[in-house]
């Protein structure tokens, strides 16, 4: 692995020089941020056990690229520096984020990195005339470059997303393929392991697990009310409730893990669990009894699984009104933060009825349970190779790493304190 100007490895014209295995195709995984890398990590296992294919990675320029280096290092990935990646040919590139993909010398498969295209981009504060906004990921300027649609394939989870794409960038519709949602498929496959996830998160018998999830940005849950964490820890009886927090990887990336842990220091000392950026939230979703969230993907995934959801923030002005995410805002109850929290949460749990979010579940995927199989078909078609025998497995998500309680070292502690809960 090399993060310098040039790297040598199993790619480009010198790929054979040090090769042990004579592969036939090279796939470039383009990682714009930790969250896009995590989505690719859900998909790339469809290439497992195929000795014909070498996968290499590159960190594309992005507003949220700081954590990508550590993410790829932890994966053990071969990394091609971006300035070199745009000068080498590849047989296929796969990305879960947009930005400079037109510079690649490869057909590109593009997929969303969350539940699909629901958020509107922030309105650009400049001097030109106002124009309509379309959901981020479907905007024409993200998909078309100098008269050509950049992605060779646009992988969509649900047929309903086609209407969004048709409104914002009709030229890109012929490239769209309905492949389902690989993350949701894994969540469903994980449901039988609920008790194991709860044990790993140290949820005792008789306790309810409350998962607080916040996307990034000023109108996210924590952007609107960071004090809600301290209130939950103080107002919910510790013998009956356990609180876990999932913060969007882009917030970790922008502010830094030291700062995130420093801000939550007192809550961590009081027993709150802070989930790591890339993984852990999915196991917590399966384990939880209630989700307090906003307009982010984690909240939508929770509702699609049939978990009781309450919205503590939902900026309607930031959500495409025709999208599936807007349906969440119309369906889920709202938290009144001017009132005590405990009676409200107990009411929401008691009032929840199975099937309450059936419409939301119906919007998550048009081909539930089949995502990896269809994505593999698409990849091999673009690679010009026959698929391996058998059907790719949909694996449950991993157990949350449970080294709890951990000492919080944000301020250089010697690790002697007790009761600090950080899952990492």
Write out key terms for the chains shown.
424 residues, six-stranded parallel sheet, globular, alpha/beta, Rossmann fold
Characterise this structure.
The chain has 424 residues and is of the alpha/beta class. The protein folds into two domains: 177 residues, Rossmann fold, CATH 3.40.50.2000; 171 residues, Glycogen Phosphorylase B (Rossmann fold), CATH 3.40.50. Helices cover 31% and strands 13% of the residues. The chain contains 18 helices and 13 strands.
Strand order within the widest beta sheet: 2-1-3-4-7-8
Report the CATH superfamily of the largest domain. Answer: Glycogen Phosphorylase B
> Could you say what the CATH architecture of the largest domain is?
3-Layer(aba) Sandwich
What's the tally of helices? 18
Note the overall shape. globular
CATH topology of the largest domain: Rossmann fold
Largest sheet: 6 strands, parallel
Overall residue-averaged pLDDT value: 89
- Oligomer description: single chain
Could you give a quick summary of the protein structure above?
This protein is of the alpha/beta class and 424 residues long. It has helices at 34-43, 68-75, 82-85, 140-143, 161-168, 182-190, 194-200, 221-224, 228-235, 249-255, 257-263, 265-269, 281-287, 297-304, 324-331, 341-351, 358-362, 371-383, and strands at 25-31, 53-59, 92-95, 108-110, 144-145, 148-149, 153-156, 176-178, 208-214, 241-247, 273-274, 290-293, 309-311.
